[in-house]
Amino acid sequence: MSFPRSRHAVLRLLALLGLLAAPAHAAEATFPPTGAVGLVPPPGMVPAKAFAGFEHPSGASIVIIEMPAEAYGQLVAKFTPEALGPTGFVAKGTGEGLSVTGGEGRLLRGSQSANGLAYTKWIAVVRGGAGTGLVTVQVPEAARRQVPDKAVEAALGTIAFRAPGNVADQIAALPYSVGDLAGFRPVRTLMGNALLLTDGPKDIDPEGEQAIVIVAPSLGQVPVAPGQEGAFARKALGTIREVRDIAVTDEKNSTLGGAAVVRLRGTGSDTRSGRMMGVHQTIRFDGAGYLRVIGLAGADQRDVLARIDRIAASIAVR
């Protein structure tokens, strides 16, 4: 009896004779619609309806934010316990490398409190294919038996990349439509529900030279009592990290289709360059949630700020 000489043929013969066990098929990564970054979620977690990622009945979540490949270096440079500390994240250790098929990554573990709840948290920045991903996992302390640390660690080890859908497909999958882009250019969607627009040729603008608009609905139910919309909007204005010392110069209250709408305009200084910026924020309150439009441009670019009004007025919830 003659035997095959090639390694491939030998392995095939052994498999046919039952002397070589067939490899188990690993679960394939699940991707958000049109998304390029996915993973195998922990048991019990399903694709989220309100954002790109996964959710669990206990309140645990995995949020995936996608960015261009060149963003990886910028994120890693700020991926330290000290840099993330002001956000409320308390890191456990200094972070470590994260194995990513066909790419690379960094992982930080820690904890954070929000809305009166304590969470165990993982933050991973990864690069692969032609993109960068920021994957954030948070599990309420009370749910750690339902979504154990071991399951989260295993899921982070399955992060994978694929070719992303084009921008038009990403926009079509949003839970709202924008009827008038007012000359702004769509760059990409964020978290599967937010849209980034810019007024310039750069997709990545670390110096903040170009005017930008971000359209984003609330994550989950965030009820605001009638009559409190203005106070909520002013508090939300203070969460814009790109601009500090924001002073409100104009406030307009109206209704649209029965929903309360608050538009604020103001000025502040860019946290990176110190130059004066014009700030626009429109929030439409509808039932248990809201839709927020943020616009940033040079304080002297009055025409650009006026165009942001057109964008906000043209948005329709699907």
Description:
18% of the residues lie in helices and 39% in strands. With 318 residues, it is of the alpha+beta class. The strands form four sheets. Strands 2, 3, 4, 5, 6, 7, 8 and 9 form an eight-stranded antiparallel β-sheet that branches. It has a seven-stranded antiparallel β-sheet with strand order 12-13-14-18-17-16-15, with helices on both faces. The model is unreliable at 1-25 (pLDDT under 50).
Keywords for this entry:
seven-stranded antiparallel sheet, alpha+beta, 318 residues, globular, single chain
How many E-type strands?
Answer: 19
The helix-strand sequence is HEEEEHHEEEEEHEHEEEEHEEEEHE
The structural class is alpha+beta
Q: Outline, from the CA principal axes? A: globular
In percent terms, what proportion of residues is strand?
35-45%
Uncertain runs with pLDDT below 50, 5 residues or more?
Answer: 1-25
- Percentage of helical residues? 10-25%
Question: Could you tell me the mean pLDDT?
Answer: 87
Radius of gyration: 23 Å
Report the biggest beta sheet as strand number plus sense, adding barrel if it closes: 8 strands, antiparallel
